Amino acid sequence: MASHTIFSIFSFLLGLVLGSFANVCIYRLPLGKSIVSPPSSCPHCGSQIRFYDNIPVLSYIFLKGKCRQCKAPISLQYPIVELIVGILSLALFTRYGVSYQYILYLIFTGSLVIITFIDLHHKVIPDIISLPGIIIGFLASFLLPYPTWLDSAIGIVAGGGALLLIAVIFEKVTGKEGMGGGDIKLLAMIGAWMGWKALPFVVLISSILGIIIGGGALVASGKGMRVKIPFGPFLAMGSLIYFFFGSSIVGWYASLFV
Q: In the listed set 72, 98, 124, which residue is the last one of a domain according to the structure?
């Protein structure tokens, strides 16, 4: 019992560290910068961040959200991303324990977090994440209990093909581009990791979230339909909801008709 508690704490701390690395990816990948070097620095004054100022979450609290050198504000995104990945890591460890499933799904869910924040900031989903994600997801299907390699392969084709079809129809009807290529590759990646059976739920819940959250944001901004809302974050949220709660939600829905 005590050892399980220790490992649980370790999984959360590991997630915080990986969340810090995720922040590096979120900032550097869209700019075409290396995620390995140079060391982290303040984007305002350029001063290198010392190791004791780079402790996940705690450094943000101790520094009161400001750079030690120039006192410029540090985005709240940094501790938020660290906490999200920390919680995901703990949730995955609670479900799978010390196992290859834990490691593989941590890679998948961590990628979804990185994609979410990059898409929010830049309205783009980097191929450097989604394309390798498709390949790794398919290869992982040979190790994971589910999906099978066939379900994964169908998920790749169905995921990319479904959004591509929707995008083509939307553009034909409205004359406007409604779905980016990054979203299509992202759903193919999701299909690779979760199988084709997850896709209808993921698309449905993502669309509902997009209408509620995205529509609410448009109304609040007062800019109406002139603002393009990135769909990647909603696909990522839909995937995580299905991953952790899908069976319970489907079971509850089925019970309504019994």
A: 98
Residue 8 belongs to what domain range? Answer: 1-98
Phi, psi of 66 (to 5 degrees): -135, 150
What pTM value is reported for the model? Answer: 0.90
Please tell me whether residues 109 and 209 are part of one structural domain. Answer: yes
Looking at the fold, whether 257 and 140 belong to one and the same domain comes out as yes
If asked whether residues 134 and 67 sit together in one domain, one would say no
**Nearest Cα residue to 190 out of 119, 134, 107, 129:** 134
β-partners of residue 41 are 48
Distance from C-alpha of 179 to C-alpha of 163, rounded to nearest angstrom: 7
Whether the CB-CB separation of 102 and 163 falls below 8 Å is answered with no
CA torsion sign for 96, 98, 102, 104 is negative
Pair (109, 84) in one structural domain: no
**Tokens (6 digits) for 52:** 């004791």
Q: Do 94 and 132 lie in a common domain? A: no
Q: Are residues 67 and 106 in the same domain?
A: no
Could you tell me which residues are beta bridge partners of residue 66?
73
* In contact, 218 and 224? CB cutoff 8 Å: yes
pLDDT in tens, 32-89: 989 988 888 887 887 888 888 889 999 999 988 898 888 889 899 999 999 999 999 9
How many C-beta atoms surround the C-beta of residue 159 within 10 A? 29
Question: Is 191:158 a contact under the CB 8 Å cutoff?
Answer: yes
Q: Can you tell me the distance from the alpha carbon of 112 to that of 125, in angstroms, rounded to the nearest whole number?
A: 10
Q: Where are the alpha helices (DSSP H) in 29-148?
A: 58-62, 77-96, 100-122, 127-140
Angle, vertex CA 25, rays to CA 47 and CA 129, nearest 5: 160
